[in-house]
Specification:
It is a single chain. With 471 residues, the protein is an alpha/beta fold. It folds into two domains: 291 residues, Ribonucleoside hydrolase-like (Inosine-uridine Nucleoside N-ribohydrolase, Chain A), CATH 3.90.245; 104 residues, Immunoglobulins (Immunoglobulin-like, Sandwich). It is built from twelve helices and 19 strands. The longest helix is centred in the N-terminal third of the chain and has 21 residues.
Length: 471
């Protein structure tokens, strides 16, 4: 018997307000910041970008380059009219240029203190002061001293209650600690929401953007793929995407999870998504690769819980030439970087499709499907019973055929043992059996809905199932 207890079976859709975003970037330190900016601008219709601040870092200690931000935005301005043919909401280049500012012009905490508020500092404070109930995400691609100065100024000029209210609005996602300001911020403001992989870069989740994984097809991060799909013959914005020097787009995870795909909830880093998965705890110093390369930034023991590395165990699926369209591959992987690379083909294809939007008319480009459910996204079932999950409410704006993949995400939710599908997992409606439990448990299930356009694009729905023990 298939059964479930839930809200009325109405079509559930993934929607919500745009995320507010401030970017701090040490652009021109090396090419990856420019790469990340090109990608970010292609999703400028999905996010409310409120500041783009050029900063220093341990890798570029005495320069800031707002001019490079302006150059890439100018290229975006050439293609913005064509982007609007594909989706509404792309801001003008002029409005984005007004958001470009310089941060602290020197390295680390030595560049902070009374009277050292830069344009970038003032922009962060103004964004926090804005009467907007949405969280303010600060995406730190380089050093964090501009953010540190903003917090220092707020602490000196606001009441404790007002400071606490403003800090509650802020979310920080830093790509490691690229100066000594990040550790200072976390020590000084212990309640601040902070995502980071501190320490050596070998212990960084963001490496999942570009690491070549043994045994997998890594073609979507290859130089050949990048040249063909992003750089060459892809218009003026694609031409601004530089070759990889050290690692492809190491900064991109700091905003990737804010893109509304139906997979992630930005306020729940432990739920996972394109930007990785993180758990809230105090990491051990030895787990941070403290002697590994990080540009000589001191590595300190953390003094409070932070959102940091979490491990996913992933068995990648492969396409089958005959029979069931997808089957589990021969190998499983357990790693913190897998929380990013497990989604990599999907977000790389999405990037390639968006670059095509800059030059192609809508009828010659692909657009993402709309993943839908024909039931609620929160269900309650009884232990031992069968229940169905259905993505039959999905559609595609281009009329493309759709493929489906339902799976349990065992690292998320209280029930950690895998719950396999009863039969094929690659159809729109899939049956699972609730495990036997002795107390109320939760399990997260993901529907990945992929079109058959070129490149194929994926959107998701998450269903959280509460499993109650038998009475």
């Amino acid at each position: 018997m298939v059964g479930m207890l839930s809200a009325p079976a109405v079509m559930a859709t993934a929607s919500g307000p745009k995320a507010r975003l401030v970017v701090l970037t040490d652009i021109e330190n090396e090419p990856d910041d420019a790469q990340s900016l090109v990608r970010l601008l292609l999703y400028a219709n999905e996010l409310d970008i409120e500041a783009l601040v050029a900063t220093t870092s341990t890798h570029m200690r005495n320069e800031v380059h707002p001019d490079s931000l302006r150059r890439i935005i100018a290229a975006y301005g050439q293609v913005q009219p064509n982007l609007l043919l594909h989706a509404p909401g792309y801001p003008s280049a002029e409005s984005l240029l007004a958001l470009v500012h310089a941060g602290q012009p020197a390295y680390g905490m030595a560049a902070t203190g009374p009277g050292k508020d830069s344009e970038g500092v003032l922009r962060i404070i103004a964004a926090l002061d804005r009467a907007d109930p949405r969280p303010l995400w600060v995406s730190v691609w380089g050093g964090a001293n501009t953010l540190a100065q903003a917090l220092m100024t707020l602490k000196a000029t606001r009441s404790p209650a007002e400071l606490s209210r403003l800090l509650t609005k802020m979310r920080v996602y830093a790509i490691s600690d690229q100066d000594d300001a990040g550790a200072w911020i976390r020590r000084t403001f212990p309640d601040l929401f902070y995502i980071v992989s501190p320490g050596g870069y070998g212990a960084a989740t963001w490496g999942g953007m570009f690491v070549a994984v043994d045994g997998l097809d890594n073609s979507t991060i290859s130089t050949k793929w990048i040249a063909h799909n992003i750089q060459q013959g892809r218009g003026p914005l694609g031409a601004e995407y530089p070759d990889v020097a050290y690692g492809m787009e190491g900064d991109t995870p700091a905003f990737l999870g804010l893109i509304p795909t139906g997979l992630s909830d930005p306020d729940r880093p432990d739920w996972g998504g394109w930007g990785g998965r993180y758990e809230l705890y105090v990491p051990a110093l030895e787990a941070m690769d403290p002697k590994g390369f990080n540009g000589n930034v001191p590595v300190e023991a953390e003094t409070r819980p932070i959102w940091t590395n979490a491990v996913d165990t992933v068995t990648p699926y492969t396409d089958s030439p005959h029979g069931r369209a997808i089957t589990p591959g021969p190998r499983s992987y357990s790693h913190f970087q897998a929380t990013i690379w497990r989604w990599r083909d999907a977000f790389q294809n999405d990037f390639a499709a968006r670059i095509a939007w800059t030059t192609q008319p809508p009828e010659k480009a692909n657009h993402p499907p709309v993943a839908g459910l024909d039931h609620a996204d929160r269900l309650t079932v009884t232990a031992g019973t069968l229940f169905q999950l259905s993505a039959k409410g999905s559609s595609d704006p281009d009329g493309d055929s759709l493929s489906y993949h339902w799976f349990h995400y065992p690292e998320v939710g209280s029930w950690k043992q895998p719950i396999p599908a009863k039969g094929a997992e690659n159809i729109d409606r899939v049956t699972f059996r609730a495990p036997m439990v002795t107390k109320s448990e939760t399990a997260h299930f993901i529907a990945a809905v992929t079109d058959k356009g070129t490149p194929s694009l994926t959107r998701y729905r998450r269903v959280i199932v509460t499993i109650e023990p038998k009475r």
